[in-house]
Amino acid sequence: MAGHLADIWSYRELLANLVRKELKVKYKNSVLGFLWSLLNPISQVIVFTVVFQIVLKNTIPFFPIFLLSGMLAWNLFALSLAGATGSITGNHQLVNKVYFPREILPLTYVIAALFDFAIGFGVLLALMGWYHFPLTVHAWAIVPIVGILCAWTLAVSLFLAAVQVRIRDIGIALPVLLQVLMFASPIIYPLTVVPAAWREWYLLNPMAGIVSAFRDVLLHQRIADPHPLTVACAVTVVVLPAMFLFFKRAEATMADLI
């Protein structure tokens, strides 16, 4: 494992170049360009607020902030997976001609998604200012929470990228899987609405603990509830190395299969 990590570090310039390329290509020839990173979270907040708070009479206080805080974490996860799943098959010419650690390709999309996250986080801060919602010292805990989110996202990205090489249906089914998983995570509702009898099983989805911790330190202005976050960390610590080794095992035949 240490040797693999050292190998990635030696190709850090390639990783940086791929991230820059992804950010440039993503909005190339679009009229609004990087403004789409700003408009996407705003439009999501408007649509969900109208549907859930106005039409369905949702009583969650500060619902736009509540919603955006969950959507930011979810969008980082979903955008990373959308790009990373096809990262190997979509770069088959590069994979077949040049040696480099293949895990750099899915990692590229996770890092690139952090750019959209940063812009969306700026929108969240502006919205909190609009509602006169102060930041507290607990907000600094966002940094390690985002780190856990990125680690979990990378674990799933490595798995899907490796499986996509053999089973191309994964990329086709991914939008549906993400939609189901979003409603199985506390994005548009609080974790407290999940029945206590199901909650331990529910928390095995690390997005539940991550989103809950995100809201604790920003909205509730307190230390994150340790139990959901601990479960999320434990699952991530187990799954990430396993998925990394799974990816490296699959790497040996990737060039032949694509």
Task: Please render the helix and strand layout as text.
Layout: H1 2-10, H2 12-26, H3 36-55, H4 63-84, H5 92-97, H6 104-130, H7 142-166, H8 169-183, H9 196-202, H10 206-218, H11 226-257
Helix pairs in contact: 2-6, 3-4, 3-6, 4-6, 4-7, 4-8, 4-10, 6-7, 7-10, 7-11, 10-11
Beta fraction of the residues?
A: under 5%
The strand count comes to 0
Note the main sheet.
Answer: none
| Low-confidence parts | none
Tally of DSSP helical segments: 11
**Spatial gap, N to C terminus:** 25 Å
Order of helices and strands: HHHHHHHHHHH
Structural class: mainly alpha
Percent of residues in helical segments?
over 70%
Integer average pLDDT: 86
What does this structure look like?
The chain has 258 residues and is mainly α. It has one domain (2-257). It has helices at residues 2-10, 12-26, 36-55, 63-84, 92-97, 104-130, 142-166, 169-183, 196-202, 206-218, 226-257. The model has no long low-confidence stretch (mean pLDDT 86).
